[in-house]
Specification:
transmembrane helix; transmembrane; single chain; flat; DUF2157; Putative membrane protein
């Protein structure tokens, strides 16, 4: 069993009183000894004995192949016959998929790299086939191509329970939303992050439905956890950029931004409703509501006409509210990734606040000294806070 999944499962089982701490300790000791035995028996020690290194090598290999093949085709595209172009475009992802399926049981980490290759090259295939058959200029087709690519990548990430492929799928999904929803790019990205986080709550089989008790034995999925931290990172980055700077986007009647904001709010409400009777699930769902609410407040500031510093202070408060929700979720879910997102968001938020509005109302040298002192203090506080949260998580 994957060590990270084992640690998360044992922490959750102890918390839910499925097993006691002594039993968890014995399981850890047994699994550790088994892992060491398998590694010694196979002659895998040192650097290559670390499975994460093997996974990293496989993923880098898949990514490099995708980039290399794409570059090769781009340089020689016009000289390749049309039929051969289509064959290559279809053959690369299909061959990668076939190889991944074939190696799935014997060499799962190498198969992981091939799945990443298939997910990445699917985009090249879709867009180049559209160009090849002269349909790329069809109105609205770009959004559908992005959506199809995102669906393939997210499907692979979910089925494989892969963090890297899931990140690719979420990033491509943002491209699909940007192509389909005309509006303010920053706001669309932020509200999309809220939707992605809510999806991470709704797709997590370890979080019980309202009134259910029977999901604590399931292993946590990397897929759902990745959706949560990536979605949280999107929302945090956008609030830090548009809220704390003191210059939020102006309020307009743009239907695209309003639609994506409404979808984020509905997704958050659904996530909370699903998890209302479970304390652990309520912790997880807190950022699903905090993200669209904080973004909505930051957006609304654009139509109030307040002083820039006042707007920045309110924006900073919105950011801190979202960061608090992420920390609550991190403690409830025992997820270090959410702690890292909250820590980075805190530093980014304080830095943006100092570099933007505060620097405008103070003299240059004084602003630099104040900014330096506050950033040092923020860094120290963020580091200590992160360690404290991680220690509480065990």
């Amino acid at each position: 069993m994957d060590p990270d999944a084992l640690r998360d499962a044992l922490n959750r089982w102890v918390e839910e009183d499925v097993i006691d701490e002594s039993t968890a300790a014995r399981i850890r000791a047994f699994e550790t000894s088994e892992t060491e035995f398998e590694s010694d028996d196979a002659g895998e020690d040192g650097l290559l004995g670390d499975r994460r290194v093997v996974v990293a090598l496989a993923l880098m290999g898949g990514a490099l192949i995708a980039v290399g093949v794409g570059t090769f085709l781009l340089e020689r595209w016009e000289s390749i016959p049309v039929g051969l172009r289509a064959l290559v475009l279809l053959g690369v992802p299909l061959a990668a998929t076939g190889g991944a399926v074939h190696l799935g049981d014997r060499s799962p980490r190498t198969a992981h790299g091939l799945w990443l290759l298939a997910a990445l090259f699917t985009g090249v295939t879709l867009f180049q086939l559209a160009e090849l058959f002269s349909i790329a200029d069809v109105e609205g087709l770009d959004a559908w191509l992005w959506l199809a690519w995102a669906a393939v990548a997210i499907g692979i990430g979910s089925g494989l329970d892969s963090r890297p492929v899931t990140v690719v799928g979420v990033a491509v999904g943002l491209g699909a939303i940007a192509a389909a929803v005309p509006g303010n790019a920053f706001l669309v990205a932020g509200f999309y992050g809220g939707i992605v986080y809510a999806a991470g709550v709704l797709t997590d089989v370890t979080l019980p439905e309202a009134g259910d008790e029977a999901t604590t034995e399931a292993s946590p999925t990397r897929f759902a956890g990745t959706l949560r931290w990536v979605g949280g990172a999107f929302a945090v980055s956008v609030i830090a950029a548009i809220g704390v700077s003191g210059s939020p986007p102006p309020i307009t009647d743009d239907p695209g931004t309003v639609a994506i904001a409404g979808a984020a709010a509905v997704a958050g409400v659904v996530a909370v409703a699903r998890s209302w009777r479970s304390e652990r699930a309520r912790y997880a769902a807190a950022p699903a509501i905090a993200a669209p609410a904080s973004l909505g407040i930051a957006w609304a500031l654009g139509g109030v006409g307040l002083d820039e510093v006042v707007v920045a202070v309110v924006g900073l408060a919105c950011l801190l509210g979202l960061l608090l929700a992420l920390v609550v979720a991190a403690v409830g879910l025992q997820e270090a990734a959410l702690v890292n997102v909250a820590t980075l968001g805190f530093v980014l938020g304080v830095g943006a606040f100092l570099v933007g509005p505060v620097a405008d109302v103070t003299s240059g040298p004084l602003a630099l000294v104040a900014a330096g002192l506050v950033l040092l203090g923020a860094g120290l506080g963020a580091e200590r806070g992160r360690r404290e949260v991680l220690s509480r998580m065990g």
